[in-house]
Write a structure and sequence with these properties.
Rossmann fold; Alpha-Beta Plaits; 4 domains; 20 helices; elongated
C-alpha cells in the first residue's frame, strides 16, 4: 500500500490552498530569476535545450498558477508562451542552429514586457499573502486518510503536486507522489493504486513514455488514468485516449472538477472490476481474473524467487447433489464451500471459481507440501461438518472434494502448470476421490490432437474448444484424410466422428489400432447409434460422446485423455 500522507487534522481545504500559494510564489520568484537569466543569454550561448527549457518553465506556470488562484499570472503566462510556441512545431526540429538562435532572440525581446509584469504581479502576491519574497513556505499538510482508494500523482511541478496530494488526502484518499516517469514506474511496481494522474510535459521523459511502459504490464495496465495537460490540442487528446487514458483534463482546472472526475472514475472502475472479475453466485474471483493473476504471480516469482503453488479442486459427485436436492441445493453447496475456502486461506491467497463445481487456488509463498497440508485440513473439516443447511427442510448437506496440488518450477508456462494440476486432480478422482494429490512438474510435453469431422462448422467448434489443451490441433475433413494423417504423424488424441464420407470413423479406428497407433481415441456418435458405441468399445475406443453433446463435456473428456496419457 502506498504511503499515506500523515497530516494535522485541524487543516481544512482553505488552509491547504493558502499554504500551497505561499510555497508557490516563493518558487515562482526563483523561476523568474532563472527565466531572466536564460532569456538574457547571447545568441552564441543558446542551444536547443535552452529554448526547450524556457518553454517547459512557462508552460508549467501557465498550467499551475490558475489552479492555485493566481489567475492574472496564468493569463500573463498564456501570452508569454504564445511567443515561444514555435519551439513545439514540427519544423522547429529541422531548424539550423543560426535559425534557432535568430528566433530565440526575437522571442526573448518580445516577452521582456511580460517578465516585468510578472514580477509586479509577484510582488502583489507577496503582499496579499503576508510573506516575504525569500521566506519559506508553510508546510501544507492536511488530515489523514481512512479511504481504501489509493492515488499516484505523477507531476514534475512539485508545488502543484504537493497541493493536489494534500487536497486529495483531505478528500479521504491514500496519496503517493512521483516527480518523473522512472520514479512512477518504481512505485507502480511495488504499490497498489486505484487511479493515476499523469502530467504529460515532464523532464527528462514525457508522460507519453509511461503509456509505453505500462501497456504490456498486466499488473498496472488496468489502473484508471487521468491525464493533466497544459495542452488543449485535439490531436494530443486523441493520442492519449488511443494510448489508454480514461480522462483528459486541461490545465488550468478547478480542483472541484478534478475531484469529481477522480471520484467518478474510481467508483466506476471498482464497479466494472467487480462485475468483470467476480463470479455472481459465490462472490469469488472468476476464471478471467485468475487467468490474469496466474501470469502476474508467475512473473513476480521469476523476479523475486519464492514458492508458488497451484491447487485445482473439484467437488465429488456434485451432480448427485443437484439430482437429489435440486439446483438450489447445489448453489448453496457452492456458496458454502466458497465461504469456507475464503475463511481458511491467507489474505495473500487467491480463490476462483473456475467453472461448474471446480475451483482454482493460488498460494504465493507456499510450497506444495504446505499447500497440501492446508488442503488436507480443509478436506477434513468438510467431511466432518455440513457445508450448507437447506432453510425449507433443515436438511444438512455434506460433501467431499478432490484436489490436485502442483508447485511452480522455473521455465514452466501457465498452461503446463495448469495441465499438471489437472493431472493431479484426475489422479485423485481415479484413486477414490475425497483426497488431495500432490504432483511434481515434469518437462513440458507437446500435446497434439487430430479432429476428424466432415461437418465444417462442428469441426471448427471442436478445434476451438480443445485448442487450449494442445500445442497443435490438426483437422481432417473425412475419414480417409484422418487415416493418412494417423499413419504419417504422431498424435496424442484423435477425435473421430463415426459417420464420414469415404471412410467411416469406426474403420479409421480399426485400422489405426491394427497399426498399433498409440493415440487415445474419442469417438463421436449420433444419438441413435448405440450399436456404433458398442462396436467402438470393442475396437478399443478410449472415450465416447453422443451428439448433440455439451462443449464442457467434450473438454472434460479431452483433459481426462491427456492426463491418462501421462501415467
Amino acid at each position: 500500500m502506498p504511503h499515506t500522507r500523515s497530516n494535522p487534522s485541524n487543516l481544512n481545504s482553505d488552509e491547504v490552498l493558502r499554504s500551497s500559494q505561499k510555497q508557490y510564489v516563493s518558487e515562482l520568484q526563483e523561476r523568474l530569476r532563472v527565466l531572466t537569466e536564460i532569456t538574457g543569454l547571447s545568441a552564441e550561448e543558446v542551444g536547443r535545450e535552452t529554448v526547450a527549457r524556457i518553454y517547459r518553465m512557462i508552460h508549467s506556470i501557465k498550467g499551475s498558477a490558475p489552479i492555485l488562484g493566481f489567475n492574472r499570472i496564468g493569463e500573463l503566462a498564456m501570452l508569454w508562451i504564445q511567443e515561444w510556441q514555435w519551439t513545439q512545431q514540427e519544423e522547429a526540429a529541422s531548424f539550423t542552429l543560426p535559425e534557432l538562435r535568430n528566433d530565440y532572440m526575437k522571442s526573448a525581446a518580445a516577452t521582456e514586457p511580460y517578465m516585468h509584469q510578472m514580477e509586479l504581479e509577484l510582488e502583489q502576491c507577496f503582499a496579499e499573502l503576508g510573506t516575504g519574497g525569500s521566506g519559506e513556505a508553510d508546510a501544507a499538510v492536511p488530515s489523514g486518510s481512512t479511504s481504501e482508494s489509493s492515488i499516484l500523482i505523477i507531476e514534475d511541478d512539485h508545488v502543484l503536486r504537493h497541493y493536489l496530494a494534500n487536497r486529495l488526502s483531505l478528500d479521504g484518499y491514500h496519496v503517493d507522489e512521483a516527480s518523473n516517469v522512472d520514479e512512477a514506474i518504481a512505485k507502480l511496481r511495488v504499490n497498489v493504486y486505484h487511479l493515476i494522474t499523469l502530467d504529460l510535459m515532464m523532464y527528462p521523459q514525457s508522460g507519453y513514455r509511461l503509456f509505453e511502459l505500462i501497456k504490456d504490464d498486466l499488473t498496472i495496465r488496468w489502473i484508471p488514468m487521468i491525464v493533466l495537460s497544459g495542452c488543449n490540442d485535439i490531436s494530443d487528446k486523441i493520442r492519449c485516449f488511443n494510448m489508454g487514458a480514461d480522462d483528459y483534463v486541461v490545465k488550468p482546472f478547478q480542483y472541484d472538477e478534478l475531484s469529481a472526475r477522480v471520484r467518478r472514475l474510481i467508483h466506476r472502475h471498482k464497479e466494472y472490476k467487480h462485475l468483470a472479475f467476480h463470479d455472481p453466485l459465490t462472490g469469488l474471483y472468476n476464471r478471467r481474473y485468475m487467468d490474469q493473476q496466474l501470469q502476474i504471480e508467475l512473473d513476480r516469482a521469476m523476479r523475486y524467487p519464492a514458492p508458488l503453488t497451484l491447487v485445482v479442486l473439484d467437488i465429488d459427485h456434485f451432480k448427485t447433489v443437484n439430482d437429489s436436492f435440486g439446483h438450489q441445493a447445489g448453489d448453496r453447496v457452492l456458496q458454502g464451500l466458497s465461504k469456507l475456502l475464503t475463511s481458511k486461506l491467507r489474505r495473500t491467497d487467491f480463490v476462483a471459481r473456475w467453472g461448474g463445481e471446480e475451483f482454482v487456488l493460488l498460494l504465493p509463498g507456499a510450497s506444495d507440501t504446505e499447500a497440501a497440508a492446508i488442503m488436507q485440513t480443509i478436506s477434513q473439516h468438510v467431511r466432518e461438518n455440513p457445508i450448507a443447511v437447506m432453510e425449507n427442510t433443515g436438511s444438512k448437506l455434506f460433501i467431499t472434494f478432490s484436489a490436485g496440488v502442483v508447485q511452480w518450477k522455473k521455465n514452466t508456462s501457465v498452461s503446463d502448470w495448469m495441465r499438471h494440476a489437472d493431472f493431479a486432480l484426475y489422479k485423485a478422482k481415479r484413486t477414490g476421490r475425497n483426497r488431495v494429490v500432490k504432483s511434481t512438474l515434469r518437462k513440458p510435453r507437446t500435446v497434439r490432437i487430430l479432429v476428424a469431422e466432415d461437418d465444417r462448422v462442428l469441426r471448427r467448434i471442436i478445434v476451438e474448444s480443445v485448442s487450449q489443451y494442445a500445442e497443435q490441433v490438426t483437422e481432417a475433413k473425412d475419414g480417409a484424410e484422418a487415416l493418412r494423417l494417423l499413419q504419417q504423424e504422431s498424435f496424442d488424441i484423435c477425435i473421430l466422428d463415426c459417420l464420414m464420407p469415404q471412410l467411416g470413423g469406426l474403420e479409421v479406428l480399426a485400422q489405426a489400432k491394427q497399426a498399433k497407433k498409440s493415440a487415445k481415441f474419442l469417438v463421436v456418435t449420433g444419438n441413435e447409434s448405440e450399436a456404433n458405441t458398442k462396436k467402438a468399445a470393442s475396437l478399443g475406443a478410449d472415450e465416447y460422446l453422443v451428439k448433440p453433446f455439451d462443449i464442457e463435456e467434450l473438454k472434460q473428456k479431452v483433459k481426462s485423455l491427456i492426463n491418462s496419457s501421462w501415467r
